[in-house]
């Protein structure tokens, strides 16, 4: 009670002091005093809001050392990089649309000023009860509405058109990077949460261009409105011989204080938007992963584990969204109070000053104003015009101030799209380009000029080369794990090679290095061009399209005609791989279906093998691609490929039935050692050894169960056995 009474007395004394200060003062001094008190109140409000902002929890700190996206030099550098992509040159279509859009915004600003003046004249005629002039101005107002509404619609249309063009430009450039030098494969190898390319290429680019175009309109037109409306209001004040410096100073102080306050209390919406987009992308990746591996998950009954993983990541997304909503809640309260009510009070004070403080009109206006009624009507006209202009100006400044939140969101999407392009550029730049060699150059000529040493990590290719030469290479993963430290083999055309060894010994890794998927860290490879080598994996990729598209992949129908092949040739190929029944069952080569689900495992493998008969390469890399095919069909395919199509086969297989189709063997032992030898000379011996190995394996697998049974019999009979001692 004591504290409350003291506070009440202080408030009472303050009111008495203010009353004494205000009494017996001119209107101008009263206004200045009120202005000073308002500035003091705004300062105390500023400090209070800062304390409130510090008490509200901000976004979670980043775990990494990377700087958060915000309005700084780095953001403008990233935006400049993306603008060079979105606007390739000054005379591009995108630049032209931006120019037309800017002209439309300027026209809309002049129309707004004209409409404000016209509304003032309408109110003046209403006060004067001048029906004819009112009707004339009303007709003008209706006529000006036609270009005004057209201009508004044109602004929205140009926004959408520019947004689409900028988006298309970014997508076009990103696709050029993404599909160049197999960048998509290198990014897929990273398997990191940071590499959410599908999210970057769809939602992030879409939101970036949408925010960019919207912010351009939200900043360009308001700035034009502010300049033109300010000039018009100053001209109005000068015509009444009123000092416009005080209202202008008042506007600058109010705008400056509110702007500083909004910037200080604004949460890091840019980082929040980037975090939410990243979490959404990862959640989408998890859903896609379940769709891709649905059969395996179903076999293992892994629904509970996958559901827990999805729910856990959704809860993380929910927390991030709640953080955004909580920060927006209190931020919008303060923003609306400052921009709507504080600015409205300041605007009313600015409007009233020319009317309240002007005692007389200029001589020119006194000639026109003959009585008090005319003076009132003219004041009404000027008040209405000034109110409309200042209201439009306040709206313009408000749009500029509220754009800060969208600008911070733009920083987040700019960072994600910029990092995506930089990742594409880095992977593309790090790709090794094979060195082209002449037709008369031999493998022994591929040496360094310094001391005749073999060049490390180099790949040579030529159209005329009919062999694959691997000279002292390291079979190494992209992460740097060495599988085979030194490998040297030469595979001439016609040397069908069988590659064997335990899992993880480097068989498939060798194929990836020969095909250029993995980088060559050391040694030299000489090979034909990639069009003369074809890879068939264990699980063949089935594209979206017709059955014909599956056979000729990655060619298109136009490419097939250029190779002078037709559907009859494709049917012959399907006969080789025993898939003519599939063509009949599915309705012909033009049938379209989800081939991944329609075909069985063996049919998929045979369809994958049909591609080597279409492309007719010099070398075919077969990576356990017949494991689901019967032995008789497998033999037919191998016999046709070797004898009829003269394709040299490099096969990874565990079936000893395939040994008869190869004349050389490359064996890996799994610890970095290898052995390359001819297979024809000891094929029968190897087959006998293989059969003996399988027999011994079966015998040894039954040893443990036989010992258990013998122990059980000894216990029943009460005897012992020397086999158990």
| Strands, count | 11
3D shape:
elongated
- Strand content is 5-15%
Would you tell me the overall average pLDDT?
76
Helix fraction by DSSP (H/I, runs of at least 4): 55-70%
How many angstroms separate the termini?
A: 99 Å
CATH class of the largest domain: Mainly Alpha
Low-confidence stretches: 52-65, 359-370, 446-454
| Largest beta-sheet characterization | 6 strands, mixed
**Number of structural units classed as domains:** 4
Biggest β-sheet: strands ordered side by side in the sheet:
7-8-9-5-10-11
The helix tally amounts to 23
Query: What Rg, in angstroms, do the CA atoms define?
Result: 40 Å
Structural class: alpha/beta
CATH architecture annotation of the largest domain = Up-down Bundle
What is the CATH homology-level superfamily of the largest domain? Answer: ABC transporter type 1, transmembrane domain
Please name the CATH topology of the largest domain. Answer: ABC transporter transmembrane region fold
């Amino acid at each position: 009670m004591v504290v409350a009474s003291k506070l009440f007395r202080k408030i009472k004394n303050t009111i008495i002091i203010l009353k004494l200060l205000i009494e017996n003062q001119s209107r101008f001094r009263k206004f200045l005093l009120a202005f000073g008190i308002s500035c003091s109140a705004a300062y105390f409000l500023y400090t209070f809001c800062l304390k409130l902002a510090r008490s509200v929890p901000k976004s979670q700190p980043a775990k990494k050392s990377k700087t958060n996206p915000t309005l700084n030099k780095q953001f403008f550098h990233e935006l400049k990089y993306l603008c060079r992509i979105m606007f390739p040159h000054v005379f591009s279509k995108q630049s032209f649309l931006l120019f037309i859009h800017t002209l439309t915004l300027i026209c809309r600003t002049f129309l707004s000023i004209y409409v404000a003046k016209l509304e003032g004249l309408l109110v003046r005629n209403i006060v004067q009860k001048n029906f004819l002039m009112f009707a004339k101005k009303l007709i003008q107002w209706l006529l000006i509405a036609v270009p005004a509404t057209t201009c508004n619609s044109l602004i929205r249309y140009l926004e959408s058109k520019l947004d689409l063009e900028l988006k298309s430009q970014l997508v076009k450039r990103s696709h050029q990077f993404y599909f160049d030098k197999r960048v998509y494969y290198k990014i897929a190898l990273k398997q990191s949460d940071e590499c959410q390319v599908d999210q970057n290429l769809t939602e992030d680019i879409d939101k970036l261009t949408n925010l960019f175009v919207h912010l351009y309109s939200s900043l360009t037109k308001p700035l034009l409105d502010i300049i033109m409306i300010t000039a018009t209001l100053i001209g109005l004040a000068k015509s009444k011989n009123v000092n416009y410096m005080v209202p202008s100073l008042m506007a600058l102080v109010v705008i400056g204080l509110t702007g500083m306050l909004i910037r200080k209390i604004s949460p890091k919406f840019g980082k929040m938007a980037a975090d939410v987009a990243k979490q959404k992308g990862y959640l989408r990746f998890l859903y896609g992963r379940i769709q891709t591996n649905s059969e395996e998950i179903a076999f293992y009954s892994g629904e509970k584990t996958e559901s827990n993983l999805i729910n856990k990541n959704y809860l993380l997304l929910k927390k991030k969204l709640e953080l955004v909503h909580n920060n927006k809640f209190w931020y919008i309260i303060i923003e609306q109070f400052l921009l709507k009510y504080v600015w409205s009070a300041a605007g009313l004070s600015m409007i009233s000053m020319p009317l309240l403080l002007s005692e007389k009109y200029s001589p020119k206006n006194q000639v026109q104003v003959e009585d008090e009624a005319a003076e009132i009507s003219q004041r009404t006209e000027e008040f209405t015009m000034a109110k409309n202009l200042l209201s439009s100006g306040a709206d313009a400044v408000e749009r500029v101030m509220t754009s800060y939140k969208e600008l911070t969101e733009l920083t987040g999407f700019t960072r994600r799209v910029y990092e995506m392009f930089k990742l594409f550029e880095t992977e593309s730049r790090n790709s090794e380009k094979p060195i082209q060699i002449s037709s008369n150059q031999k493998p022994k000529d591929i040496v360094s000029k310094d001391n005749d040493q073999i060049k490390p990590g180099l790949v040579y290719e030529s159209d005329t080369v009919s062999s694959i030469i691997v000279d002292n290479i390291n079979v190494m993963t992209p992460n740097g794990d060495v599988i085979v430290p030194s490998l040297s083999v030469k595979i001439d055309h016609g040397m069908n090679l069988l590659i064997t060894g335990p899992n993880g010994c480097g068989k498939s890794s060798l194929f990836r290095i020969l095909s250029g998927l993995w980088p060559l860290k050391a040694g030299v490879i000489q090979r034909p061009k990639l069009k003369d080598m074809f890879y068939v994996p264990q699980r063949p990729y089935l594209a979206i399209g017709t059955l014909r598209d599956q056979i000729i992949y990655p060619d298109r129908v136009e490419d097939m005609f250029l190779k002078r092949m037709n559907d009859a040739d494709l049917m012959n190929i399907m006969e080789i791989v025993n898939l003519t029944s599939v063509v009949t069952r599915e309705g012909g080569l033009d049938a379209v279906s989800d081939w991944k689900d329609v075909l069985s495992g063996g049919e998929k493998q045979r369809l994958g093998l049909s591609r080597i008969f279409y492309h007719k390469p010099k070398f075919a890399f077969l990576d356990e691609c017949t494991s689901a095919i019967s032995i008789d069909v497998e033999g037919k395919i191998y016999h046709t490929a070797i004898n009829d199509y003269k394709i040299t086969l490099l096969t990874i297989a565990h079936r000893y039935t395939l040994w008869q189709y190869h004349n050389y063997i490359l064996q890996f032992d799994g610890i970095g050692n290898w052995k390359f030898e001819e297979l024809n000379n000891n094929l029968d011996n190897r087959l006998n050894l293989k059969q003996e190995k399988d027999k011994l394996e079966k015998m040894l697998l039954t040893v443990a169960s036989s010992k258990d049974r013998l122990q059980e019999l000894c216990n029943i009979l009460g005897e012992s056995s020397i086999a158990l001692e």
